[in-house]
Amino acid sequence: MALHIDIVSVVPDLLKSPFDHSIMKRAREKGLLKVNVINLRDYTNYARLQVDDYPFGGGAGMVLMIEPLVNALESLQATKSYDEIIYLSPDGETFNQKTANALSLKNNLLLICGHYKGIDQRFRDQFITKEISIGDYVLSGGELAAAVLVDSLGRLIPGVLNDESSALSDSFQDNLLAPPVYTRPENFRGWKVPEILLSGNHKKIEEWRQEQSLERTKEKRPDLLD
């Protein structure tokens, strides 16, 4: 079954390229991933396609209004139900591989991209089921975060990668970083590939990789081992 992801955005053109190349393109061509980008301005009743206004109480910046967001949501829900309605926000839970694995098993996801200073809190309170951040920093909008989310989920769908075991050996799948990898030539300017990888002894190679993963995690991300 395909994973269907709808994305509501004020600037949908930002999301044209990320899904038209490489693995995401292949996933869509196989019918395993369906991505639909919705222009929030198509759902406003205000003049000049207005979807934002000044915040009550004053302050800098603009806020996405609740009305067009609800209009878009109700229109979409008329034809499908969502497993999760996700708001991409810097104050959401930090996205990780565990969350990616869980979301990749869903059928229908709706991603809401904030813009400017964010969205009206009432929409978050009433409709959002999950809030996700891709890191402790602020972007101009949620579109790039949405692209990261879709890419991370899409590659986990069975049949998307040519070798499905590849995703299982990625960093963070078992709370360890991936081991170092090498390819041809075996010797470049005197820098040699570890002999164990050329031995053909798959049991020893797997043990080496496990050891390297553990050592790399201890060095670079000891917090993962806590």
Note the main attributes of this structure.
five-stranded parallel sheet, 2 domains, 31% helix, alpha/beta, 7 helices, Alpha/beta knot, Trp Operon Repressor, Chain A, 226 residues, 19% strand
Structural notes for this entry:
With 226 residues, this protein is α/β, with parallel strands linked by helices. The chain has two domains: 152 residues, SPOUT methyltransferase, trefoil knot domain (Alpha/beta knot); 57 residues, tRNA(m1g37)methyltransferase, domain 2 (Trp Operon Repressor, Chain A, Orthogonal Bundle). 31% of the residues lie in helices and 19% in strands. The protein has seven helices and nine strands; from the N terminus they run E-H-E-E-E-H-E-H-E-H-E-H-H-E-E-H. A five-stranded parallel beta sheet has the order 2-1-6-5-7. The model has no long low-confidence stretch (mean pLDDT 94).
What is the overall number of helices?
Answer: 7
CATH level-four homologous superfamily name of the largest domain: SPOUT methyltransferase, trefoil knot domain
CATH topology of the largest domain: Alpha/beta knot
Q: Can you tell me the CATH class of the largest domain?
A: Alpha Beta
Shape: elongated
Strand content: 15-25%
- Radius of gyration based on Cα positions: 21 Å
- How is the biggest beta sheet arranged? 5 strands, parallel
Total domain units: 2
Low-confidence stretches: none
Question: What's the mean pLDDT score?
Answer: 94
Q: How are helices and strands ordered from N to C?
A: EHEEEHEHEHEHHEEH
Distance between the termini: 36 Å
Order of neighbouring strands in the sheet with most strands: 2-1-6-5-7
Helix content: 25-40%
Query: Helices and strands: which structural class?
Result: alpha/beta
Q: What is the count of β-strands?
A: 9
Question: What is the annotated CATH architecture of the largest domain?
Answer: 3-Layer(aba) Sandwich
